[in-house]
Amino acid sequence: MIRGLIAPILSPFNEDLSFDQVTYNDYAKHLLASGCSGLAPFGTTGEAMSISTAERRLALEGLVRSGIDPSVLIPGTGLCNLPESVELAQQATDLGCEGVMVLPPFYFKDVSEQGLLDYYEGLIERVNRTVLRIYLYHIPQVSGVDLSIDLIKTLREKYPTIIVGIKDSSGDWTHTEQLLLMEDFIVYPGSELPLVKAMRLGAPGCISATANLNAQQILNVISLCEQHDWEQAAVAHDLAVESRLIFQEFAPIPGQKALLAGMTGHEPWRHVRPPLLPMPEQEADLLRARLDALVTERKSD
What we know:
With about 300 residues, the protein is of the alpha/beta class. It has one domain (about 5-215): TIM Barrel, CATH 3.20.20. The chain has twelve helices and seven strands. The chain has helices at about 20-35, 55-65, 80-95, 115-125, 140-145, 150-160, 175-180, 195-200, 210-225, 230-250, 250-265, 280-300; strands at about 5, 40, 100, 135-140, 165-170, 185-190, 205. The strands form two sheets. It has a four-stranded parallel sheet.
């Protein structure tokens, strides 16, 4: 299990929108050096659905070849089709990744729980690795597919050493709480918003998009929770939550990339693949000013 903050790492692109492996490797090392305990490549924040299977394979291999310990990686491998999902999961498992994060098949809507169960069972059988570790990825507001508590319990009962955890990005605290009450199941909230409540119930940390640019605020909350200093954790959490809510007012992926370009001087960070659009400089300046004003205000309190 990876304890602490896991960053769903942003994906950098060159001017021609080809994948920028060198920047990717360097940024992964920066996030880990900044205190992140793990990385989740090819998640929503990493524009995963705009990246081909071949590119994902090359990028993951590139991370490991660059010296990144695969045991801190939980790459996203869930696609709508089993063959490519199997291919990506086999590669990640063979490289020694901590696990794979698997979306449900998300094109067809109103699918039955039996259909979803068949998908995950088919994936597990075809990957055919005894060391396979799956973290379910629950983000129904984006995928359009809900992973019910009953379905998750069924998968856990059938595959207790394979279905080991979940990233719950539903934003539904009742759902997250029910997951946290399950025995021997690793639950990462998909943002820092419920972090203190979740860690009180045994969450090991969280997987948060804003870890790309706001790791220190979130890490401070996690550290205080680990010390069981719940009062100070709540104070620190307020700042992290306010920062998160500011990011959410803007286009989060283009916004973080624009800020990263400004911070590093590496302009290619601004690039996003269609259908996303780069954030205009004026809007990025406003986002930066809002975040800076929040920190200044809190320091003066």
